[in-house]
Amino acid sequence: MSTLLRSLLLLVGITLAVPAFGNCLTANETRQGVLLTREVPFFSVFYKPDGPGLTEQKLVERNHSLQPVSAVYLHPLLVEKRVGPNGTHELKYANAIALDDLPQKKTWQSDTTLFLNGKKSVSGTTFIRFDGLGEETIASCSYKVWAINSRLELTGLPPIIFEQYYSPELRVVLRSVRLGPSNQPLSEVRFDRFQIGWGN
Predict the structure, then answer these.
(1) Of 67, 77, 49, which Cα lies nearest the Cα of 152?
(2) Bridge partners of residue 112, in order along the sequence
(3) Where in the sequence is the signal peptide annotated (predicted)?
(4) Which residue ranges make up each domain of the chain?
(5) Which of 46, 73, 87, 177 is the most buried (most CB within 10 A)?
(6) Which DSSP letter does residue 183 get?
(7) How many Cα atoms sit within 13 Å of 42 on the Cβ side?
(8) pLDDT in the model for residue 60
């Protein structure tokens, strides 16, 4: 086990992580928590369902050091709070979170306010759009996904845009592409393998 993976396991308090060799990830297994890993460049994230949303713990290797980041999601497509080396970023949404029926409704949006370390910063709007159905593959396993365009526009800041591939069965985003203002790809997270685990 690599030093990075061992550190991540300690970070999230996983007492057991079982590789699902020969098996594909199921919804029941995801409910126990799942560790998704990209080998190069190294990136690993642990998702644990929490009611309609989930919690996220990850370590990112930057400049030969590990940076822990944790987050809370109101829905797997909608982050509420992120805690990292630069402090706490929290987003408050004015509208009810209604994202499970996106294929029918096609869009969701809400007035949004950003709080930095508990202090109100700027306001704007979150837009989430359903763009169609597809499939994503991890470790030779295929999963049906929704293609989602997520856009956060805050006053005075450039838009934050992601193209996400979300498995409604697993309730996890399996691939994410950061887009620039003209929708050009800037970076991508696609996973190579997964492990099933659960925390203390």
Answers:
(1) 77
(2) 93, 124
(3) 1-22
(4) 30-196
(5) 46
(6) S
(7) 16
(8) 65
Q: Which residue is it, tokens 């126990």? A: 32
Report the range of poorest mean pLDDT among 24-28, 85-89, 172-176, 194-198. 194-198
Q: Is the pLDDT of residue 70 over 60?
A: yes
CB atoms within 10 A of CB 52: 14
Does the pLDDT at position 154 exceed 70? yes
**pLDDT 10s digits, 16-55:** 334 444 589 999 889 889 999 998 888 889 999 988 899 9
Nearest Cα neighbor of 67 from 76, 58, 75 is 58
Tell me which DSSP letter residue 87 carries: E
With pLDDT > 70 as the criterion, what percentage of the chain qualifies?
Answer: 86
Diameter over CA atoms, the chain: 49
User: What are 54's strand-pairing partners?
Assistant: 49, 73
Output the six-digit token pair for 13.
């308090």
Both tokens of 46, joined, read 């642990």
Q: Which fold has domain 30-196?
A: YmcC-like fold (2.40.360)
Q: Which pLDDT belongs to residue 51?
A: 87
Give whole-number Cα distances, 49 to 32, 63, 76, 162, 199, in Å.
8, 31, 9, 21, 11
- Given a contact cutoff of 8 angstroms between Cβ atoms, the answer to whether 46 and 56 are in contact is yes
Q: Distance of CA 142 to CAs 19, 20, 42, 135, 136, Å?
A: 17, 14, 22, 6, 6
